[in-house]
Amino acid sequence: AGRAGTATGTVVFPGASSGRGGGQTGVELYELHDRSPSDNSLTSSSIVCKNMHLLLRRQESCSSIERSAAPLPEDSARSLHVAALVLQPGDNNVTFTAQAKEAGTYTLRQLCATVGRIHFTLPHIYPIVQYDVYSQEPQLKVEPLTESLLAGISQRVRFTVHTGHYTVKSGDALQLSITDTLPILHAASSTATVATNSGDRVSESPLSIQSSGKVTSISLPAAPDYHVIEFDLHVICHLPSTLPTAPDSDRPSAEVKPARKGPEKARPELPCMTSIDQKISIDCPWSIYSTLISLTFNIPFSASHTLLSTGTRKYLQVCVQNLSEVGFQLFDAALVDITGTSPLSFVSLNPPGQQRVQSCQLSFFVWELPGPLPGRGLLAEFRVSFSPLTGPSSGPDQRPTRPFTYQLGLDTFCTLYGVKADISPPLGMGMCKMGTLCSLEVSIVRLSDLTDTDQDEALSQSDGLCTTRLMYEVVDNSSNWAVCGKSSGVISMPVCASATHKVHMEVMPLFAGFLPFPDITLHKYLPFQACPPGQTEAAADSWLENDVLALDRGLEEQQEGGSVRSRGSNQSGGSGEHKPPSLPLPRLLPFGNGQVYNGSARRQVLVLPTQDDHVLEVSVT
User: Fold this and answer.
1) Which of 95, 218, 449, 609 sits in a 20 to 30 Å window from 299, CA-based?
2) DSSP reduced 3-state for 136
């Protein structure tokens, strides 16, 4: 009979079809009677097979019946058995069982059935029936329950143990070696569940956690082989004490990577969160080797600072941006001078209480720098405590152990000069008019005495009076004004408080309305620096690339008869080639942030339109 295998390992032996139409040759038996010719009496009776030539083969028609060479069941080292089997009429399902001691693929070669002293043997089983025996090693998996882990707040981490062929006994425990910056928060309600591989829960028991130094022991519940143990832990990754930043609010130098997942949303591009990698070494009872787990935590905030000035008064503004998807409340903001010598006490201008900052929102904090301001640089640290708003990310301990910190540095921030501009209409006119020349007066006032920042090449001393050279420039980048005449120049400024220099020029408004004042810039004007022969072109190129300006304008207000020529104005004879000589390169040095206060930066002046004598005729019907 034919046989077929199923996916469950059951071999089905279908019953043989009757008659001749089943695709197999059936036995055709006929009854033969032998009668006496005299009285027609029955002398013998027999059964004859008419298709014997189709049923018998040469191998089976041998004169001697030999025993099959196939091995008997007792000759096989591995076999499947079933005993006390009762066969019912029709199809029967028979299940064979055996205990496999080695992994591998096994093939069923022979089928043997014994009824009393009678043995039925099927020498070969076809089609081939096989079954696989495998052994699963125990596995430990640690994964967060959120898309990304945030540093500074409690986060849930799930531990999953697949026991495999190992039987977890009472007393088995996981030994976790962690750093001080990643403590495990103990919760009395923590439990561990034991379930089958198919997900059916078997038991649930309290989770026992014990910490000793840097090693945390987690007791595992007893579980049979090929089961799953699951439990959740609350961990908190402490924020680092400092985030390395360069002066003037440069971005952190630590390696960053995107932490947001999911579909892209139509919102402004946000900076990436700074990540912290935490390593956990876990010793498991079923292995002599340690398992190394890496968890990545993202710092949910970024910070930047801005120096604000109004005259000689200074204000420091710190902006905190929430880069995560979790809302936070900020409190206890502080700014501390960590320079080390004569620290400043900043005056807080922030409202008391807490500030809420949702995802992608900004929060600002402002302090005033008390006077008199030191001439040195400033290194300060901003600190603010935070906690998540009510949500799934909060854990048993919502308050962080360390605040968010941000270090900021200012090289020079004292106001050295004040610039003020005034625009007045022509004589006899009360207001400025478009297309009419107006007078522009620029006042440059020294606001402090000699400081350490003035000690440079531009400083000169004569008869006890220190002077420095400055270059001013009036440029209208918005194209509202036409600056007539000389728009830039070099002045010699005494380095003493209240020293004033005024410059007059004419400007013409090109449009009517409230026009902002032209832009006024101030630079330090350093002396000429001659280039050595053979290095003129390289020095000039470097000079241009680094924004050190060569002034090719005629500056009529230069002191000491200095003059500026355009590069390459002279030629050498003889060779016919253009070889620039050693060029005197004037240099401009920009002032630092907050050293120059422009009191006219946001001022506007009303400009009237010109009188229009055209007549517009309007016909209304």
Assistant:
1) 218
2) coil
Identify the residue whose tokens are 């918005």.
478
Phi, psi angles (nearest 5°) of residue 315: -135, 145
Using alpha carbons, list the distances in angstroms from residue 215 to 177, 211, 474, 487. Answer: 5, 6, 68, 72
Pairing of strands 215-219, 173-177: antiparallel
Task: Indicate whether this model's pTM tops 0.70.
Answer: no
* Residue entry with tokens 């009872």: 285
Q: Which class for 283: exposed (0-12), middle (13-18), buried (19 or more C-beta within 10 A)?
A: middle
- Identify whether the C-beta of residue 567 lies closer than 8 Å to the C-beta of residue 550: yes
Q: What is the CA radius of gyration of the chain?
A: 48
The amino acid present at 346, given as its one-letter code, is: F
Cα distances (Å, whole numbers) of residue 109 to 3, 70, 531: 13, 10, 97
In three-state secondary structure terms, 598 is strand
* DSSP-derived 3-state class of residue 282: strand
DSSP helix/strand/coil, 541: helix
pLDDT band at residue 260 under the 50/70/90 scheme: very low
- How many whole angstroms separate alpha carbon 361 and alpha carbon 359? 5
- C-alpha dist (Å) from residue 537 to 443, 563, 574, 582: 38, 21, 20, 9
- Pair of tokens at residue 111: 């089928």
Average pLDDT over residues 52-65: 62
CB-CB contact of 380 with 317 (8 Å): no
Dihedral (CA of 379, 384, 385, 386) sign: negative
CA-CA-CA-CA torsion sign (529, 533, 539, 541): positive
For 48, 132, 358, the CA distances from 63, given in Å and listed in that order, are 20, 43, 98
Structure tokens at 58: 């040469």
Record the tokens describing residue 97, joined without a space.
């069982």
pLDDT digits (tens, 9 = 90+) for 314-355: 899 999 999 999 999 999 999 998 887 778 889 999 998 889
Q: What are residue 544's phi and psi, to 5 degrees?
A: -70, -40
If you ran DSSP here, which 8-state letter would residue 545 be given? H
Residue 518 burial (10 A CB sphere; 0-12, 13-18, 19+): buried
Q: Which of left, alpha, beta for 618 (phi over 0: left; psi -120 to 50: alpha)?
A: beta
The set of residues, in sequence order, having a beta carbon less than 8 Å from that of 393 and lying 6+ positions away, is 146, 150, 153, 154, 155, 326
23 φ/ψ angles, rounded to the nearest 5 degrees = 85, -5
CA pseudo-torsion sign 211, 214, 215, 216:
positive
Token pair 């908190």 is found at 236
Instruction: Answer whether residue 541 shows pLDDT above 80.
Output: no
